Protein 1
Amino acid sequence: MALGKDYADQDCGIARTLEIIGERWTALIVRDCLYGVTRFSDLQVHLDISKAVLADRLESLVANGVLEKLTGEGHPEYVLTRAGRDLWPLINAMAQWGNRHGTGGTRTPTRAFRHADCGSLIDINGFCTACKIIPEVTEIISTPERASRRTDPVTQRLREPRRLLDPLR
Amino acid sequence: MALGKDYADQDCGIARTLEIIGERWTALIVRDCLYGVTRFSDLQVHLDISKAVLADRLESLVANGVLEKLTGEGHPEYVLTRAGRDLWPLINAMAQWGNRHGTGGTRTPTRAFRHADCGSLIDINGFCTACKIIPEVTEIISTPERASRRTDPVTQRLREPRRLLDPLR
């Protein structure tokens, strides 16, 4: 692309966030990690992108302290660091805004975010209007709201209600 | 760039948001509009990007219902629509995450977001911990916290405490 990925003279938190998650597909990788996806092959099948692009984005997220790559027996796993988990309010705001105002108009999302304690939907600020609190990311359940047109195995497993960050293995 | 700007098969609010504000510079244009910048020339001097890129991004934001272009006497003005103002939680989360975790480590931001009623900083969820509420975007004051290295006239005017969306003319 003609423009670099840094915003050197902007001196602004938003620009610094975009330097780390502003590249194409990167925010969707973080979304999948919040859903508990940990493996390269699962990320690839769910995002349906090339291995080269995925490998590049994962390397960058690890280098920037958003993901940790765990290597032991079996497949390496990518898990969100504390900084990565702190992206939850941003990812939630993106999801909620897109469902309300995104291309194609208002529609029921395939999955919604609910407070585990009460089952209520959380809002664009991550606020549970029933309990009047902002639950931690680990207190959020992703629930299926309508059928997805995708049929890959990861999408199928995400059709169950699942707590965020609960590893999908 | 090799990849298009849509995420056709993702069927997800996050992807639909990225289709509208995921292009390079677009989120920073929305940020400036929240700060009250309304004119093409002011956006250009503050973002320091080419007129062609700025014109392209503005046209896209108008087409996608985020900005309205007001033409009357004098310069046209770009103002956020209701959908555009609803991007505030996302822009706030981006700013706060970047200041805490962005490239270069934790540092005092040049500007902070405070609740107009009490002067307290709001958090990454847009929550005022003093008042225990989530203020509306028009109840947020942008305050200077440290000197910016930028010297353009728009940056200089934004050094004053200013209410978000208060037009900068």
Protein 2
Amino acid sequence: MRRIRYFAIVILALALAVPAWTSAQPANEPIQPIKAVKPANQELVELGKMLYFDPRLSKSGFISCNSCHNLSMGGTDNLKTSIGHNWHKGPINAPTVLNSSLNLAQFWDGRAADLKAQAGGPIANPGEMGFTHALAVDLLQSIPGYVALFKRAFGTERVTIEEVTKAIAAFEETLVTPNSRFDRWLEGDANALSEKELAGYKLFRGSGCVACHNGPAVGGNSFQKMGVVEPYKATSPAEGRVAVTGKDADRFKFKVPTLRNVELTYPYFHDGEANTLTQAVDTMSRLQLGKKFSDEENANIVAFLKSLTGDQPTFTLPLLPPSSDLTPRGHPFD
Amino acid sequence: MRRIRYFAIVILALALAVPAWTSAQPANEPIQPIKAVKPANQELVELGKMLYFDPRLSKSGFISCNSCHNLSMGGTDNLKTSIGHNWHKGPINAPTVLNSSLNLAQFWDGRAADLKAQAGGPIANPGEMGFTHALAVDLLQSIPGYVALFKRAFGTERVTIEEVTKAIAAFEETLVTPNSRFDRWLEGDANALSEKELAGYKLFRGSGCVACHNGPAVGGNSFQKMGVVEPYKATSPAEGRVAVTGKDADRFKFKVPTLRNVELTYPYFHDGEANTLTQAVDTMSRLQLGKKFSDEENANIVAFLKSLTGDQPTFTLPLLPPSSDLTPRGHPFD
């Protein structure tokens, strides 16, 4: 009897000790889980998905949103800077479209207020899709299958760029990645993380990384200077937020990138100069925090970062409505 | 009673008349239905699908098989000639990958015996994906997710180009398009075609088009000279089959393209010079048959051709295994 009571006390003590051992009260963490999205208007999302995959929205007929924000590869192109019309070398690394609805603004310098405002940018950028909004709209208007889909989604057969970007944004809003192992840990599953990953998170939280990389997207919610303690030796001419505000104080300020799915979104930084997470953690800790992590500490943080990979959006590859005889053909070589 | 017998005879006569009216004994038609494919090795197909969508098999990290044989767009790029590495202008129109397993050989000049032999071509072509087989294999070998998939599909962790092309071909063999309205008509559904479509088919069959465009793929099973009755004024330097055989008689002989899904695979001919089906039918009838169809006849044939659009392959967009720190990054601008 005494023995049983002894064991019961030991088990109770162990049970109480678990939260203490993980030293986490998920409710009080600076990072919150990503929530799944239930789209209000599925027809709009389906139309947006088609437009997202449609290279006819580019001058060449070759480049779609998915070319540089590839949903097979973490919503990026995994290139240092992107390839645009006529093999134009882009000025900046393509940020992931995944969880981009959680960003405080779009583009590295935040020049677009939201996804709808962003969606029109690359279509008309001569170094990206190289088209114009007017030509894109004329093209869609010439495709009977699209006209029918716009009619269903918007109640009108007259396509405008407003509706095009609204549909693309509606699709992009569905591209969230819930259910990462880190989120499962946040939601109370103490076994979702390994000891190494948890040690990495504690270091990430305790060393100052969370000052900028916080919230559900683990970033995306502020503009910060690249190179706080030590200046960043940039090879890229990008100057960040100053291009939008005109304020000198905003020079080299960039939107803090989300760290969700960061395992998939290499290379890193606005200029894509860091090829690996190890390198990115090392550079950021030195430049932003004045810290040099040991190899083991760095590896632990990298292990934690890889636990942020969530469920990737899965869907059927869209079939695009065919062009009509009146649809202008792509002009890649003009 | 007499009245009832009269009606019964009328109904019987009508029932017997239906096959006579359609004037088709589908069993004797020169075109046969496309059969659905049940892959023997689903793991191999899934691996091949990933490789088909993986731009890391190109030097730039930007161009995949799906870039030019886009499964959202009838397995083509809908461009006159394709865009390759460094925006290279391709010499020839990208043929559709749909039903390509039915071709007697691959490429317009038939220089590859089968899909496996074809699959390695674009990867190593400097004007297409611009890579080498050795680099492609090294790259895949550096990606743990791929190594595991190769192990499952082939029982070995050592990747070679043999396995890469075998997997891509296995996926491509699944890309058939059964169940077109024309096939349903062939299989006995007299209502599957409109009168106009049927009139178009009769003209297609009776005017000599079926001499080359026959079999399940409505083409793809012979090499024929482009310009039999009247020479074709080519703008493209492509000379066709002579490049393979060295025989003068094979100059301007090209593989007869499949007409399956031809509604989706514009523009037409090896040089992509015909933008519309109307134009393609007009040119081919003049050059190959010495015929000039009236506008109505041409429109009927086009209506028939559009009944050849089958069920497009539908599948979940593949998620690609991420690169490791050791995986070489794409080099678009070297």
